Amino acid sequence: MHTNAPEPRSKKKQKKNKKHSNVRWIVTIFFVAVLISSAISFLSSSVMEDAGIVEAFVVLLIIVLIGILFDIVGVAVMSAGEKPFHSMAAKKVPGAAEALMLLRNAEKVSSFCNDVVGDICGVVSGSASAVIAVKALTNLGSDAVGQLIMSAVVAGITIAGKALGKNIAMSKPTQIVHLVAKPIYYIKSLFRCKKTRKRK
Q1: Could you tell me how far CA 122 lies from the centroid of its own chain?
Q2: Regarding predicted confidence, which is higher, 1 or 149?
Q3: Where does residue 109 rank: exposed (0-12), middle (13-18), buried (19+ CB within 10 A)?
Q4: CA–CA gap between residue 84 and residue 82 (Å, rounded)
Q5: DSSP letter string, 1-66
Q6: Which of 66, 80, 123, 134 has CB 3.0 to 4.6 Å from 173, enough for a Cys bridge?
Q7: Would the pLDDT of 93 be above 80?
């Protein structure tokens, strides 16, 4: 008879560390989602409260655009390969190392971009369209028509924008990931310069 050999301690430790890491990620992403959602909701409601229909609609479009842009980043990170960035990193191209970091954490980056920011923007844009519909009621006296048109326009822009964004992300994932990684590189460089100055 064959008996199952006991699992090595190293593998058990790896599984335990991975489990703890996943729990920490879920807890972190929960609080980050709450903070981002609260901030976006507060800012959008504050701006829309005293804004006219045109200004409110511009704010709504910005929220939708943010959701689409983050959706593009999430898809690009999941689609891009590491090989081009290894050669860039060897040549010390700015942002190459940061791009590799993003790709090695692709699941978390994609979850943050698509599930956290994307979903938040979807929820906030829905409530923002309702605010605009109320403003339309005040000015035009047609709540049902205003709500219907606003919901249709927002849904159309969101769906079409995400479809177009995914096509772009799938066709140029390397360029998009590198574009996102560059600001991270410059921010890190700025902090390095500040630390060097403090030591001097």
Answers
A1: 12
A2: 149
A3: buried
A4: 6
A5: ---PPPPPHHHHHHHHHHHHHHHHHHHHHHHHHHHHHHHHHHHHHHHHHS--HHHHHHHHHHHHHH
A6: 80
A7: yes
